[in-house]
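Q: Got a minute? One more chain.
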Amino acid sequence: MTTSAELRLLAVAALRGTTDAGQNVFAALDYPTWDGSYPILYLHTPSEDKESLGRQGGPQFTVTLTLQVSGRVEVENLQDQTGVAEATVKLEALQRQIELALINNPDLMSQLQQFPFIRTEMKTDGTGDHNLGEIVMSIGLEFYQGPEDFFPIPAEPLEGITVVVDSTNVYDPTGTYVDPMFPDAATPAPRTEGPDGRAEGGLEINFPT
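A: Always. Here it is, folded:
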């Protein structure tokens, strides 16, 4: 089963060590482990849409998850606003590194149908002693969920199959058998056609547990 939580963790693993953020890549509930250094990436999944594939058969959905990757950089404030420009360059580098790490990643692609959209926003703050820059990438992850991904339908496990043959070709036109296996199907004697209620052969198949 493919889930939003699973895809978020796969994205974290794909981004660690593959961008300027190094190991500073965190998912939900991981933020307290940050040591305060930049750049940093943090991921969460703010929205998920399920679209039904139709009324026929069991419940089937095309699911589009929005994976949000937020990155922050810090640059010392320089004269003539060059710190803002440097922060912007760092953000653009992060954007490209994130795309290279995620798009066509084998671990992700094995769970996905496509990346239906990627939306990117950047902003910088030139006030204070340091320039802070932030990039927010909203990445669509499309995948399939079927009946097997939801409430399991209770069922008894199939342990074996028994096949009993009582042919319609009359072998015994007058015999009456006690406790025939298929009493409702046996033709009463005297009979000119079967079945007569006897087990004439069979097959038993047992499935290993």
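A: The beta strands are 25-26, 40-52, 61-76, 118-125, 130-145, 160-165, 201-206.
Q: Perfect, thanks.
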